[in-house]
Design brief:
The chain folds into three domains: about 5-195, STM4215-like; about 210-330, Immunoglobulin-like (Sandwich), CATH 2.60.40; about 335-415. It is built from five helices and 27 strands. It has helices at about 5-20, 100-115, 160-170, 395, 400-405; strands at about 30, 45-55, 70-75, 80-90, 120, 150-155, 180-190, 195, 205, 215-220, 230-235, 240-245, 250-255, 260-265, 270, 285-295, 300, 310, 320, 325-330, 335-340, 350-355, 365-370, 370-375, 390-395, 410-415, 415. The strands form seven sheets. It has a six-stranded mixed beta sheet with strand order 1-2-4-7-6-5. Strands 11, 13, 14, 16, 19 and 20 form a six-stranded mixed beta sheet that branches. The longest helix has 18 residues, at about 100-115. The N and C termini lie far apart (about 110 Å).
Length: about 425
Amino acid sequence: MPGLLPIAGASRTLRTLLRDRMRQETVSVTLAPPDVAPDGASGLRVNLYLLHVVPNPHLANLPPRPDAAGRVPVRPPLGMDLTYLLTSHAADETDATADIDAQAALADALAVLHEHAIVTPALRVTRATIPDAPQGAPVMDLELLGQTERLTITLRRADLAEITQIWSALNTTPLRRAALIGVSVVELLPREHRAAPQPVTERRIYLQPFRPPLILDAYRTPAPSERPGERRVRIGDTVTIEGENLRAPRTLVQFGDLAPVEVLPLPTGRIVTAAIPDDAALQPGTLALRVIAERPPSGVGGGEGPGVPVTDLPAPPEPRHLSDTTVLQLIPRVTAATMLPSAGALAARLRVDGQRLFVAGAATLVFVGDRVAAVGDPPNATAAPSATAVEVRLADLGATAAELSGAAVRVRVNGAESADAVTVP
């Protein structure tokens, strides 16, 4: 019954250890209840009786471990701590020296257990007269050789009341010379195993050796007469990006949440993007910008020998290196300003045409010179505002058409203010 006898193996290990190392070689060592004299046991003897078994708390949460054959058990081994009652018995208890002889045998046994408190497979039998244990064989029983934990022997502290209760429970023999011996840890191996996966014969490592791009500056691409550095941009403008590690087999630029667009970095390392698209997702305010560099991975694979390059590389789920995100300001564009007279329900007003002039839910202000008026939503005696045209009443500006003639017109939407040179006719 392999794997089912570790408790019996622990008992046999203690018996073999005492038989081999006690100085009194004539003392018998038996395994029996203390009130039973085994057949053939005559003369002075010490007896071991398994009294108590409890689970070991330190091994309760260990994961299952493969055995020597590589099989993985369904559950981890059951670790147990054993308690033995060690007693000594004289050949004739009525003899005048019986008690002294039994005490000496008990002391001899305790000394052996104390000197060999840790039993390992390296501990060997030294005597040639030990039954069932040839000289040179391990003292540890074969049932315990496969367990990972060592066998530890300790003398348990037990007061007289506890010993008295034990003998009272036996209820058959008078109180004898005794000590409690603790043995830890004995492992009861599980009998059911689960299917183990096949070992890995080839390991592969995939790498993308590439530094991510870094944006140092981004600005509206200037005209030949302009200085670089303007971070306010409009729909249709191109953006120049300066940075590091921008060149890659495939480089893309992403505005806001739009789909990235492939670009070709200049030999200088700069990037000039395509025109900012007229997409409804791009509205006045902050405009996020980042660079994406794509580079195919490389790999190496192998088993026990040196690795070799891998050619059948899988497509990685995200073969991209993302830069940091820089922020520009997308501003509205003003193309014209027109004075409109009152007509029916519409008051005298100023009409401003352009791009991105109105966003529902965002504040829109029209500046004319040093005067300002808010675009009404819903409108008040003006046409309904749209992204391409807004109107404000002259009364809201507090001026007449003549007073506003020649004044510069600007529109601020969601905090982003236009920068076009448009004046009131």
